[in-house]
Amino acid sequence: MKKAQYFSKDFEWDDLRVEVENDPSFSYHLLPFQPSLSVAEESQPWNDFHHRHASGKFFKERRYLLQEFPELVSCEENSKVLEVGCGNGSTVLPILRGNENVIVYACDCSTEALERVKETIYASDIVSIEHRFHTFCCDFSMSGFPTWLACNPCQANFSQTQQQCYSDGRGKNETHLNNSHSHSQSLKERRCCIGGVDFVTLIFTLSALSLQRMPKSIKKCFSVMKPGGLLLFRDYGLYDMSMLRFEMDKRVGFREYMRSDGTRSYFFSLDTVRDLFVGAGFIELELEYCCVKSVNRRNGKNMRRVWVHGKFQKPV
Hints:
S-adenosyl-L-methionine-dependent methyltransferase. By secondary structure, this protein is an alpha/beta fold. The protein has helices at 13-21, 43-52, 65-68, 71-74, 92-98, 111-122, 129-132, 152-167, 173-190, 214-223, 241-245, 270-279; strands at 80-84, 103-108, 133-137, 197-203, 225-236, 251-253, 256-258, 264-266, 283-295, 302-313. It has one domain: Vaccinia Virus protein VP39 (Rossmann fold, 3-Layer(aba) Sandwich), CATH 3.40.50.150. It is globular.
């Protein structure tokens, strides 16, 4: 996508806020809400979701990504990216296309999603993909990340083992999990926990978690990053069109909603994002609303989309 074709300031968020907060039909979105202390299973609904959308046509490649995060192109050779919640690969694909020297570790809580992303990436014409694209199954909101992610030697061992799995036709997530466990044991024995990843991308992932799980999940991301590393964030913003479409009975918390298929969606204000990431130890570099107008081709209606864009750095 050419730069001239992408816009992020089609309207002012404050104008939208005033309009929404003064419209009685939207008043239920603003009411206080006391969520349940228990949180339902979050990975299974997404596994079912990716099974239903196995063709991959539901998602479009996020071609704007390298414009928003040019650091993924200008980084040093063999920089490591951890893509959290990779889905079907709509974020991974432009990163691998845009930089032939970057190494991507992609994880998801859904085994269905991991099968889809491998199909998508290996069907592409990306150079040397077998040496710089690696997947593993992980629900970072529950168990955190495997400890080998924070260790350069263990990353190399994992990559070599995974390539062998692909060459013998297996490459299953169960194998990845076993490898992760063995590398974790090795890591503890050798005390070689140095390095980590240079980038973590959280692209429309955090909003799928319940708000109460977000702080610990972000700290898990912090723990596997190199000092000076960047966390690149993009997710649903407060008063986005999709938020205003939710009916009252879909609310499961303040600014939290559950779809009919059991998947969740949270809508972020800038203050909430700032509190979450700074509270986890990050330094805020960029944080703003992206406000984009688009037209529904079927009915001709204008749609006002709101996303939150952020860049956060782990202190050196």
